[in-house]
């Protein structure tokens, strides 16, 4: 069976069709179908003055809440986006237990009687001792299918009546809708059912400029971004997300090694090959969603609160954040602090990639020195641990080195080394001595020339950049300026 014939692939293809044709068979929720689709303008559901209230949802409660590896994927809200921009936000649930299948069955059945609530279930991400007050994200059920095969209309209808004798897994394709807080528990047997209210972010106030820890065991250090304004956080988040998506795209085009290719071709199931093939398409899709969001939709967000919310959530989806961080993003109603969490995670991804590149550069440099030494001593080099390279036309029993690597391989290695050597210019050595009260001079422009001033507050370092607040002597104006390796010539000690 080819990978395109697998249940997971068929589900994904059918979902893509559904996103284009709108509600079919009654299993696409009302909020989705109510969003107008236009060829020229993408609509967004921003600026809700009144949150959703008194919605009845069956709840899916993960007993592994708080652990690194939850049982299911954790959705993020997407109801504020047009359906066209949620293709990268789809997730898959594999349900084995009958009670969990019944939750999905109830979600599908409730759409017929209560279309306003949508074809949704509630995915709990945080709860205390009681379900009242628990926080979660509603998930829209798009497609459901049994593992042996996929027949979309029949399978969707069959979700309304779960067979207790069926021991096979149920595969469900869903998408995050809106965040909620449990208001009242209606029943707990055989599964929890609750009345929920939509949970919106708090309005942005002056105290949002300070970093707030979500809990005592919070692993995310956001203090380094405590002084950044919401506008600066949004700018830094979008720039970092752009770089992360580009890394994902570049990684998807890396050629497979012979061993990886052999493993994929000889795998017992088609899933590994399917994942390798779709990796490139997924990376391209995420970049397209990001570019459309930034160029067409971000400017129409009515206020700063909604803008912080939208940027954080799309970053979490497109950058594939961990379940633990997704849960933290959902439980906080401080949109500014959420952006700090998101920015910290994006920076950690970029730092990891920089570390990998540095390791690769060091390894290449060691190999070059080893080759030079072997060439001086006349020793026979061992290329990448594979062994001595022989000419196919010579007697290998003589153990005589005859041929060298091909010109193409040498050129590729040289180009790779050149690329690694081209990095970000380093900061000046005196940059780490800049503190509150230190005197500096900054070259403003050709007309103003060098302007002397005093540093106000300690600089904020973000990777290879310092954000420095300077009060200038000539007019007393205060400006926050950037010190990077690229423009270090504009700075000097007095």
Overview in brief:
This protein has helices at residues 7-21, 30-34, 98-113, 152-158, 230-252, 258-265, 271-297, 304-318, 323-331, 335-377, 407-421; strands at residues 55-61, 90-95, 120-126, 135-146, 170-187, 193-198, 439-443, 450-455, 460-462, 465-472, 478-484, 491-492. With 494 residues, the chain is an alpha+beta fold.
* Rg from alpha-carbon coordinates: 28 Å
SSE topology string: HHEEHEEHEEHHHHHHHEEEEEE
Predict the CATH topology of the largest domain.
Archaeosine Trna-guanine Transglycosylase, Chain: A, domain 4
Number of domains as seen in the coordinates: 4
- How many beta strands in the DSSP annotation? 12
**CATH homology superfamily of the largest domain:** LON domain-like
Your description of this structure?
- Helix 5 runs antiparallel to helix 7 (271-297).
- The chain has helices at 7-21, 30-34, 98-113, 152-158, 230-252, 258-265, 271-297, 304-318, 323-331, 335-377, 407-421, and strands at residues 55-61, 90-95, 120-126, 135-146, 170-187, 193-198, 439-443, 450-455, 460-462, 465-472, 478-484, 491-492.
- The N and C termini lie far apart (73 Å).
- It has four domains: 1-200, LON domain-like (Archaeosine Trna-guanine Transglycosylase, Chain: A, domain 4); 203-370, no CATH class; 380-423, no CATH class; 431-492, no CATH class.
- The radius of gyration is 28 Å and the shape is elongated.
- Helices cover 37% and strands 18% of the residues.
């Amino acid at each position: 069976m080819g990978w395109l014939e697998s249940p997971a692939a068929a589900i994904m293809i059918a979902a893509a069709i559904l996103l284009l044709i709108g509600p079919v068979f009654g299993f696409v929720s009302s909020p989705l179908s109510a969003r107008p689709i236009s060829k020229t303008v993408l609509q967004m559901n921003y600026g809700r003055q009144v949150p959703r209230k008194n919605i009845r949802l069956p709840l899916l409660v993960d007993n592994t809440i708080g652990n690194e590896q939850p049982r299911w994927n954790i959705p993020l809200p997407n109801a504020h986006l047009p359906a066209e921009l949620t293709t990268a936000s789809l997730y898959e649930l594999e349900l084995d237990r009958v009670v969990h299948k019944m939750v999905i069955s109830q979600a599908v059945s409730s759409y017929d009687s209560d279309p306003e609530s949508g074809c949704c279930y509630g995915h709990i991400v945080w709860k205390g001792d009681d379900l009242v007050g628990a926080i979660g994200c509603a998930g829209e059920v798009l497609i459901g299918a049994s593992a042996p095969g996929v027949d979309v209309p029949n399978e969707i209808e069959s979700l309304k009546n779960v067979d207790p004798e069926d021991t096979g897994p149920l595969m469900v394709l869903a998408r995050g809708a809106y965040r909620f807080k449990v208001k009242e528990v209606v029943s707990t047997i055989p599964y929890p059912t609750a009345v929920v209210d939509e949970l919106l972010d708090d309005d942005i106030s002056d105290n949002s400029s300070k970093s707030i820890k979500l809990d005592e065991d919070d692993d995310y250090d956001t203090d380094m971004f405590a002084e950044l304004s919401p506008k600066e956080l949004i700018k830094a988040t979008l720039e970092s997300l752009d770089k992360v998506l580009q890394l994902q795209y570049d990684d998807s085009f890396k050629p497979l090694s012979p061993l990886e290719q052999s493993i994929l071709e000889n795998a017992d199931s088609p899933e590994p090959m399917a994942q390798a093939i779709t990796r490139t398409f997924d990376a391209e899709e995420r970049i397209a969603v990001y570019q459309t969001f930034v160029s067409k939709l971000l400017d129409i967000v009515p206020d700063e609160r909604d803008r912080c919310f939208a940027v954080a959530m799309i970053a979490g989806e497109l950058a594939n954040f961990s379940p633990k961080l997704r849960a933290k993003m959902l439980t906080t109603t401080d949109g500014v602090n959420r952006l700090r969490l998101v920015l910290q995670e994006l920076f950690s991804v970029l730092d990891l990639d920089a570390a990998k590149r540095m390791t690769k550069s060091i390894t290449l440099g060691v190999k070059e020195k080893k080759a030079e030494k072997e060439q001086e001593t006349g020793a026979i080099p061992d290329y990448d641990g594979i062994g001595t390279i022989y000419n196919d036309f010579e007697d290998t029993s003589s153990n005589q080195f005859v041929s060298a690597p091909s010109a193409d391989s040498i050129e590729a290695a040289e180009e790779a080394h050149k690329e690694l050597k081209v990095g970000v210019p380093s900061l000046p050595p005196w940059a780490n001595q800049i503190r509150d009260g230190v005197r500096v001079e900054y070259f403003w422009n050709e007309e103003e020339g060098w302007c002397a001033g005093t540093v106000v507050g300690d600089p904020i370092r973000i990777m290879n950049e310092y954000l420095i607040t300077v009060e200038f002597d000539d007019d007393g104006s205060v400006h926050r300026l950037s010190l990077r390796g690229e423009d270090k010539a504009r700075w000097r000690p007095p």
